[in-house]
Structure formats: structure tokens, C-alpha cells
């Protein structure tokens, strides 16, 4: 008679055991790889993923309390907005398609596809992928608006989407576009694992966390705050200090809680 432990639970999508110490990181890689195969994610997106993974490793692959506070401020901004828009690129679509749809529902936001390397094929593949995950309407395909100060392809937006937005969530955005959107007076919420990157430094709300954790976390806060009076939302927005959030993430990277990384060594 043996006293056998139950076999580890396996994720059906990736066939990875859920109790693997690096489960989340391996699942992320699996989704990005699939994204490339489906024509959703560019090969440059693979490089961005690698850079993100390195920062996540340094952050202990956990949401810092300061990143959670940023997620709450992000939710308050989205709920207060007249016209919030969630911008989606190839990595975001591959990693969190259903979670973006949930966040759009929780905050009554539009979803717009916006690509650094824009091709009509990839735009279409991403829009289809988001619809397969429950999106009703996906913007970005009309491309009848322009962000001034950027070259032609990267400047394209929908006039009634990002063009008309007052608050924009731009995860994993490149620094130039983040800067140009900021100059247009839009409030930017940036999700990025690198607190030294230009985009989070430009943002009203930098969420220094993995997109895989950050988007569901913003949704959770938005649901909790759904019935909050405007005054409370405004207090959350005003009480958020972006500089302090960036500093805290840099401190966490420098000082690192090496204990947390035990058992999470690279494959
Ligand atoms: P900048 O121009 O702002 O300096 P960059 O050149 O660093 O930006 P990219 O090379 O496009 O920008 O890299 C994308 C960014 O996305 C990186 O900062 C990386 O840390 C971040 N990133 C990658 N994967 C994730 C993820 N899963 N969650 C959050 N951020 C991520």
C-alpha cells in the first residue's frame, strides 16, 4: 500500500502543472508563443516579453503593495472618466484577452487595437481574437484619427476611440507614443514592469506589475468601487503619488527580497 499524493493539477490550455514554482511565467511564455503562431504578437513582442520577464523576476513575481495602490487609482480614474479607452497591442491581446474584456465591462470603456508595427492582417487577427474572448466592439480598424508628433503608421487611432478619450490605459506602450498621448492632455495609465522605462515615467498612473496580474487587479478594484461616490473616487486619484510608486518599485528591484525568489529559479 502506498500513500500516493494526488497528481498535480494540470492547466488544460498550456498542459503545465499549476503547482510548478514558475507556473505563471511559463504560462506567459506559452501564451506569447501562441500569439506569435496566430499572427497576433510580433517577433519584437517576444523581445519585449523577455525584458518584462527579467523585471518580474527581480520584483519577485508578485504585486507590490504600491502597485496595488496604483491599480486602485487606475480603477478610480477609469470610473471617473467621460470616455475611457483600453489600448491593446499584440502582447496584451495574447496575454490577457478575456481580462481586458472584463475590465472594459467593469469600467464601461472602449477597447482599441493600437500597434507599434501596424499591419492590417495583425489588426484583424487581434480584433478577431478579442471578439472570440467576448468583446462586442473593437476599435482601431477605422484609423480615421491621428496623434500629432508621430510618424504615419504609429500615429493612427480611431477618432471616436483614443482620439476622443480622456483616460487611456496603455499597457506595454512605447515611450514616444506615451509622450505624445500625454501632450494631447489625455490621462494615461501605463502598465509596465520596468519602472525606469519612459512610458511609466510619463504616466499619471504607472502600474509597475505584470499585465497578467495588473489587469484583473484593476478590474477587482473597479468592481469594489462601482458604487462609490465621485468624491471618494476623486480622493483616491488625488491621494496617489506616481513618483512614490516608481521609487518604491525601483527600491524593490534594488533591495530585492531574495527569499521570495527561492524556488523560482529560471528553468
Ligand atoms: P521606452 O521607450 O518607454 O523606454 P521600451 O523601449 O522599454 O520603452 P519596449 O522595448 O517596447 O519598450 O518594451 C516593452 C516594455 O514592456 C518593457 O518595459 C517591458 O518591461 C514591458 N513588459 C513586457 N512584458 C510585460 C508584461 N507581461 N507585463 C508588464 N510589462 C511588460
TrEMBL record:
Catalyzed chemical reaction(s): (R)-4-phosphopantoate + beta-alanine + ATP = (R)-4'-phosphopantothenate + AMP + diphosphate + H(+)
GO biological process: coenzyme A biosynthetic process
InterPro entries cross-referenced by the UniProt entry: PPS/PS (IPR002855), PPS/PS_sf (IPR038138)
This protein's UniProt keywords: ATP-binding, Coenzyme A biosynthesis, Ligase, Nucleotide-binding
Positions annotated to bind ATP: 29, 51, 192-194, 198-199, 210-211
EC number: 6.3.2.36
Pathway where it operates: Cofactor biosynthesis; coenzyme A biosynthesis
Subunit structure: Homodimer.
Sequence similarity: Belongs to the archaeal phosphopantothenate synthetase family.
Protein name, UniProt field: 4-phosphopantoate--beta-alanine ligase
Source organism: Halorarum halophilum
